[in-house]
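Example record for the data management plan.
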Amino acid sequence: METIAQGVREAWHLILSLDPQVREIAGLTLFVSGSATVLSVVLGVPLATLLAMGRFPGRTLLVSLINVGMGLPPVLVGLVVALLLWRSGPLGALGLMYTPAAMILAQALIALPIVTGFSLAALQQLDPRLRWQLLGLGASHWQAVLALLWEARLPLLAAVMAGFGGAISEVGASMMVGGNVAHQTRVLTTAIVLETSRGQFGLALALGIVLFLLAWLVTLVLTSLQQRARRLK
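Corresponding structural encoding:
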């Protein structure tokens, strides 16, 4: 109990004093996970739309891969990205290993199946006759797609929240491709692992509280948008 109380006191001290190191780590955490979430949404929502509205050979196989990807171990993603970005790897010439860009790529690959899977489920729950009704009223293909995405906006926002949660809570892949380098690639999750290994449980708990608050604030903003959209529906 004393360790927990110490962690809470230290967390509030770090937050209220605007500790520069914590601000740096929290800022990098938000940048990496936010960028990864945006990338996963940009790729995942169109892919989910294609799978929901299209019928083509291999579709079921692709959907099954997305579904299994939603539970894919992050360390496996980290291993694949590390092999790609290693000096001798196919993308080694880019020099991205142990950089925030490598972490964004790894977290985006983790969040992508989550966003795609949730978005696909959201679009498949719509009445299939709605699309044909829109087309029958003279809407173009893209206008119909945008209308369907708007109709599914509430669960799509839930998909974004789930993707962000998967990205910001990830630690294994970030450690593998980022290296947990101070002032360069150290984010809250990897910092918590480091301080725990050092036996600094109070500081680790403090960083954990900061991580929770950061994730909660972002989710609160997205939830507010979701509930506002619900009232307008």
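Summary line stored alongside the record: The chain has one domain: 2-232.
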